[in-house]
Amino acid sequence: MIDVEDLTFSYTRETSPILKNFSLKLVEDKSVSIMGANGSGKTTLSRCLNGLLLPESGTVRVDGLDTRQKDENLKIRALVGMVFQNPDNQIVSTTVEREVAFGLENLEVPYEEMHRRVEAILRQFGLEKYRHKSPHYLSGGEKQLLALASIFVMSPKYIILDEPTSLLDPASREKILDAVFELREKSGIIPILITQFPEETLRTDRLILLHKGKIVFDEKPADVFEHEKELREIGIGVPLYFSLKPQLEKLHLWGVV
Fold first, then answer.
1. What is the pLDDT of residues 23-80, one digit of tens each?
2. Would you state the pLDDT for residue 247?
3. Bridge-partner residues for 65, per DSSP?
4. Helix, strand or coil, per DSSP, at residue 165
5. Rounded CA separation 62/65 (Å)
6. Distance from CA of residue 17 to its chain's centroid?
7. Upper half-sphere CA count for residue 69 (Cβ side, 13 Å)
8. Which pTM was predicted?
9. DSSP string across 12-57
10. Beta-ladder partners of 158
């Protein structure tokens, strides 16, 4: 479980906190989406969940490990992987194969085990044919697949996806999410999806909606989208079906659909 208790965080002493006295529990059997307009605190929260940002006050604990304890950092990063919006910001190696192996080398995984896991993940993500290529030559969607593969190969318990599809075309967006949730089914890794696309949240068990650093909804995605008026007031759209639902229900009543 990831347990956030009374978290307060601000980027400078002169600015108001992005998150103030913020509490949240993320349980081990539920995939989660986090949405919010710009400035809602969703990206700040995502970086607090794996210790990239440390609380000004309050605590963040990952399976009991406190992110403020420096000697726990390596354990926490092994438990909570993170994929950023722009894959170029996290790809560091000169070939696809080396990139996938990079995290395992840092974890000092034995060579034979490393080789086995790299081969398996390249195959799972359809990256085998690119193994000796520089990531520079991959498309945006392929780079994001590589970023995902490089995290999944380390077998984290949780994976934070910080708007991983926002720079991609619709087909690539679907491919990325299909890969994430297929591996969710196979390996049990728990996705924590930060997204600006309401439709993407429908793949998860739980939707947390933030506004000005506060939780305004925390329910199943379909239940959250029933509150269309309130959502639009804070700048959040709803999937097309939920906008059309009243009209569809009227048509059904009259026997048209």
1. 999 998 899 999 998 889 999 999 999 999 999 999 999 999 999 998 998 899 889 9
2. 61
3. 62
4. coil
5. 5
6. 23
7. 12
8. 0.88
9. STTS--SEEEEEEEE-TT--EEEEE-TTSSHHHHHHHHTTSS--SE
10. 80, 190
